[in-house]
Amino acid sequence: MKITSIFLLLILFLALFSNCSETEKSGLNDFTISDTSEITKIIFQGKQTSVLSKKQSQWFVNEHYKAYEKSIERLMQVLSQADVKGKIPAEETDSALKKMNESKVSMQIFVGDKLLKTWITGYFDAKYNATVVQLDSQTEPYLVYLPGVTKELRPLLTDNPMYWMTAYIFDYEYFELKNISLKYPNAPEKSFFLDIKTDTAFLVSDSKNEGTNLRAVGRYLSYFKGIRFDSLISKDKIDISFPAEILTVTDDSGKKTELKTFYRMTKDTIPDKHKIFATINDTTAVIVKRCELDLLLKSKSYFTVNK
User: DSSP E strands: which ranges in 4-141?
Assistant: First the structure.
């Protein structure tokens, strides 16, 4: 009889332990996504906003910028392989939720127009060596980590657009360019419009191509590969009334990108020689290293002088 009672108690204990274990892990399937290839859009919202959208197989950031592949790969790894250590203990839940609210970043995950789930990422808890995360459908936060990679998920789930994007203004091969216009509002004699054909190119003012230096054109077109900006800024930091240069590039698909540059004044109220302000298509304001643009900001004479 004693043996039977002990056996029954053992079965009951194992059942309770198993149930507890399943309860602690119950959030796992809610957090992870088995097939991340179905995801079409992810919106990060915190102090900043980053919208990742997939067009065919290419991811874009805030519609205009190609996403950095390694950042996307790591994000998909988190969404498919994240593991749950357990719940925050009940006695710590209120303080954990309060701390989460101070720096939380929400991540909405879409398949088509359907909202699949929303992560709310809080803070890294050194005590439990995991990141405090909650689903909007849950009332309690969980301790989540990426096995074999990292316990700190916040850097991988950031609302900062710069983390997600390649930050290219122009990234063209020479044969992808259709025409280029560069205007100098304060020096119109330096302005030019370059029309690019399959096997030649010419300044519009020189349609017979009698004075256009094709070698100079070839060099110039090669400079439009990998042109990046440094950082995004608020547009209200720039006086957009007086652009220094207006560079408009049209590619062979008809896509047009207009870059306007503006002086960035130092504390001594003199133009910064190293960095400038710029707007892209009048919507995005950025800081650019001057050396990134030096080779692009040529004058008309560059194409007419024998170089």
Answer: 41-45, 49-55, 58-61, 65-66, 83-87, 105-111, 114-125, 130-135
